[in-house]
Amino acid sequence: MTDETTDLLVVGSGVAGCAAALAGARAGAEVTLATKASRPEESTSYWAQGGIAVTRGDPDSLERDVLDAGDGASDPTAVDVLVNEADEAVQDVLIETLDVEFDSDYGREAAHEEARIRHVDASTGKHVLVPFLEYLESHESVTLLEDTAALELCTHEGRVHGAILEREGEWAPCFAGATVLATGGIGGCYRRSTNPRTATGDGIAMAALAGADVEDMEYVQFHPTAFAGKTDAETDLDRDPDRGTFLLSEAVRGEGALLRNADGERFMPGYHPDAELAPRDVVARAVATERDRTGTVVLDVTPIDFAGEFPDLAEACTERGVDIESGIPVAPAEHFLCGGIDVDVEGRASLDRLFAVGECARTGVHGANRLASTSLLEGLVWGLRAGEAAAGFEPEPIETPDLLDRDPELPDRFATEKLTRLRRVMDEQLGIVRNPDGVDRAQAVLRRLKGEIDAYTRTRTSRSLYELRGACVTALLVARAAAANDESRGCHHLVEETPIDAD
After folding, report:
1. SS3 state of residue 464
2. What string of DSSP letters covers 12-48?
3. Which residues contact 151 (CB under 8 A, 6 or more apart)?
4. What is the helix (H) or strand (E) element at residue 442, kind and residue range?
5. I need a surface site. Which of 268, 294, 340, 417 has the fewest CB within 10 A?
6. Res. 416 pLDDT band, cuts 50 70 90
7. pTM of the prediction?
8. Catalytic residue among 280, 291, 362, 434
9. For residue range 204-214, what is the model confidence (pLDDT) as tens digits?
């Protein structure tokens, strides 16, 4: 690879990154969109099922729901931006620009006062992201670099000047007037996640290592109803399409599906007045508790027309040999990081000319627990805002450190084995419930692991090694934030006894 320059570098090709690229191009910038993904399904946005929330003419109602779900930790100014720009952003980009054909009905999901979710079956992310990428590929002001990873940011005296990009084993700096990180979440740091395994916190780690402020990392949301057919580490690690974890959308419970334990008991009314439609953190802990107590939790879909309302999910269950009439086995899975790179209402981070959007950013909208179907919306709204604000800067090439690659290649399974170790400690000590002693133990293990990884990154450069470093830095940030917060709130739930295994 050779050194490149661009007006605006966007790292990540989910909805947030695509929105930033679109807004930057509209503002007159030449945009480079770099993504690790070589196909759309390697982006977390592609996996989004439920849909995207809109106000249906009542922004105050949506604002109340977002604030309530955030358990008092959301930033009211950020939430106000989200709800007041929601409908216009969806109409402008998704309907008028991309011509997404949403289903005619509006779905209802947990902790929403009313049905307000625009969706396409239970595969909304796919139906939004694919046309978005196709649109940008044909845009004259956007260059799309697939299978291209950002290894680290190029910085000088508190300003970000782009990033070092890697493609096909070669790397070089891409200097940019401004840089937008849209690298997604941290699901790859956990064994069971609704994210692709490539979601290893790359952008958060790069920003933190460069000195950017990172906030609210302890608030890791677990979705209550991931398919639980197979739970062994190797199956989840390889994401076996026939047996691995996949999400059973919250919209299924919104239509009337029920949660039952191994005794056939519908247990959610005993945990919260809203039962199956309680906030996600409440339902996830209840499911984990009932699995621990009785052995199994299933999603009972017999009260609804499951195959008719959710044909994609019904097909996925049938392919895995599930007897739908007997209930679909479910378990909590890591789903979304509510914290991340601290940004303002235009996506600006604490470093000059660095922006962050989507799941890697902490906008303040989600507080301690995200409301269902606001992730695509937040990514869209902040992507548009950040892309416009980041346009207009001139690239300034600087001297960048040489990344060394002088030692022999690491064994094929080196990164895999280290990630397995990392995921184990994250599952056991930084999962759905935590206790202070366990969090301290996690910090100790992760510090040792980071030391081992750093010893190799000093003399070797590869995508897998930098992903591993990013995952370890991100995991440490979660552990440190959890240790610093002694208040149970939302997704950060502390107990004195041994934490419940999320599996």
Report:
1. helix
2. --SHHHHHHHHHHHHTT--EEEE-S-SSGGGSHHHH-
3. 163, 164, 165, 166, 171, 206, 403, 461, 463, 466
4. helix 436-457
5. 417
6. confident
7. 0.94
8. 280
9. 999 999 999 99
